[in-house]
Design a protein that fits this description.
The chain contains two helices and no strands. It is mainly α and 39 residues long. The longest helix is centred in the last third of the chain and has 14 residues.
Length: 39
């Protein structure tokens, strides 16, 4: 999973309801990049 590839240890599926993606992959990548910059 994207988060684990970047060193995060949480279950991404637990963050988003199944069958109800809240973000496109591009949006999720952008949010993850911003989170990494803040870390």
């Amino acid at each position: 999973a994207l988060a684990r590839d970047n060193g995060f240890e949480f279950d991404e599926d637990s963050l988003y309801p199944p069958n109800e993606p809240q973000f496109t992959e591009d949006q999720l990548s952008e949010r993850l990049a911003k989170a990494l910059l803040r870390a």
